[in-house]
Design a protein that fits this description.
Strand order of the largest sheet: 1-2-3
CATH topology: TIM Barrel
Helix content: 25-40%
Strand content: 5-15%
Shape: globular
Order of helices and strands: EHEHEHHHH
CATH superfamily: Metal-dependent hydrolases
Number of helices: 6
Number of domains: 1
Radius of gyration: 16 Å
């Protein structure tokens, strides 16, 4: 269907090529990028957003490889360390990734959202108000394929 976009899926494995975090909470079955694209095709979806699963922590290699196979159709949401360097964010962005800096599993990443956001606010030189606005607009809305405002 024209204009449709799946907004949240994971690619996983094979574990021999993309090792899982030893701190993971589960071990999934393999779900390859080719499987995902076949699913999109079977549903008639034009685009998709792949989201980094927690099983990889901040190792985004599986996600980046999946995006490289279909850079027009796919975007990604990576999980990164809150102290990531700006040039690494730029490389991820060029690869089709829109980054989520907040983890949904603080214990796994040995941090808290307050710590992550405080470092990021300082690193980006933003006021808290500017950061919260940008967090909403740029990470939430533009994480996939939304047209610019």
């Amino acid at each position: 269907m024209r204009g449709t976009c799946d907004c949240h899926a994971h690619v996983c494995g094979p574990e021999s090529r993309y090792p899982y975090s030893p701190n993971r909470l589960y071990t999934p079955e393999d779900a390859s990028p080719a499987d995902y694209r076949r699913m999109l095709d079977s549903l008639g979806m034009e685009r998709g957003v792949l989201v980094q699963p927690s099983i990889y922590g901040t190792d985004n290699r599986a996600l980046l490889d999946a995006l490289a196979h279909d850079p027009v159709r796919l975007r990604g949401v990576a999980v990164v360390s809150y102290d990531i360097h700006a040039r690494d964010l730029e490389k991820l962005h060029r690869a089709g990734v829109r980054v989520s800096v907040n983890s949904d599993d603080p214990a796994m990443f040995s941090t808290t959202l307050v710590d992550e956001w405080s470092v990021l606010i300082t690193r980006l030189g933003l006021s808290r108000e500017e950061f919260y606005f940008k967090q909403f607009v740029f990470i939430r809305i533009f994480s996939g394929h939304a047209p610019p405002l």
